[in-house]
From TrEMBL:
This is catechol O-methyltransferase. The gene is tomt. It comes from the Eukaryota. Its main location: endoplasmic reticulum. One of its GO terms (molecular function) is catechol O-methyltransferase activity. Its EC number is 2.1.1.6. It is an enzyme of class 2 (transferase).
Length: 259
């Protein structure tokens, strides 16, 4: 039990935060209420509603039309934390420059970024996408297959990253990762990056792209990247997906392999 005196001591801080960030609090709670109301009214989850829209507005086998349908839904109707078109273009450019053959994605959600990456990969490339939430993974699987990518190109693994990364060599036969896209829970960025460093799967020139490093932010991850001396790195400034006002960034890391 927190004593009332301690509670009172924190009151000015709580009030200051509430006043300073009231705009975000209001937006957040409004979004939660609207979402619960829509869930009850439709009997579907937010991800299933987005998928229904994609199914009726996209062309099977045409990845662009799937991305366009998601973007239309998420910018006009209901927010989903897909990487979105603006940051997506940064991802597209890096993939076309890097031409990676073995790619790992951490956090597929509905499969938007998975499809975005799969369509930009060179012939013979393979993308391993991890998603730990069963319901999200079920949607992602349908979206990936709707886009026309079979299991030889995209393998969706339904499991938390900390259980899969140590098994990438033994169970999936990987020897090197050319490109890693991190877009899962931000608290997992640092432990997963360190696990990848220890796995021996990163080689000189392997690229890691981490989304949302400024919002919601991954300060411990950035501190490690700055201090460890293992990477050349930069942050691409952008705004949060499907928003104009909230500043965000993607960290691009190129593994140098030497301390
Ligand atoms: C921001 S969404 C991913 C969005 C997706 N990359 C896109 O742009 O379309 C984050 C997803 O990561 C998943 N996730 C979070 N932590 C994870 C972990 N440790 N391992 C696997 N998936 C994780 C969540 O379930 C959620 O679906």
């Amino acid at each position: 039990m927190v004593s009332p005196a301690i509670g009172l001591a924190f009151l000015p801080l709580v009030m200051t935060l509430l006043i300073r960030y009231r705009f975000y609090f209001v937006l957040f709670y409004r979004a939660v209420l609207v979402r619960v109301w829509r869930d009850c009214r439709t009997g579907l989850s937010r991800e299933e509603r987005a998928f229904q829209y994609v199914l009726t507005h996209a062309t099977p086998g045409d990845p662009e039309s799937i991305l366009d349908a998601f973007d239309a839904w998420c910018s006009k109707v209901e927010f989903i934390s897909n990487i979105g078109p603006k940051k997506g273009k940064i991802l597209d450019r890096l993939l076309s420059e890097q031409r990676p053959l073995t790619v790992l994605e951490l956090g597929a959600h509905c499969g938007y970024s998975t499809v975005r990456m799969a369509r930009a990969l060179p012939l013979g490339a393979r993308l391993y996408s991890l998603e730990m939430d069963q319901n999200n993974a079920a949607i992602a699987e349908k979206v990936i297959r709707l886009a026309g990518f079979d299991d030889d190109i995209v393998e969706l693994i339904v499991c938390p990253s900390d259980e899969v990364i140590p098994r990438l060599r033994s169970d999936y036969g990987l020897e090197k990762l050319d490109f890693v896209f991190m877009d899962h829970w931000k608290k997992c960025y640092l432990p997963d990056l360190q696990m990848l460093e220890g796995s021996g799967l990163l080689g000189k020139g392997s690229m890691i792209l981490a989304d949302n490093v400024l919002f919601p932010g991954a300060p411990n991850f950035l501190r490690h990247v700055r201090r460890c001396g293992l990477y050349e790195w930069r942050v691409h400034r952008a705004t949060l997906e499907y928003s104009t006002g909230i500043r965000d960034g993607m960290a691009e890391l190129i593994y140098q392999g030497t301390k």
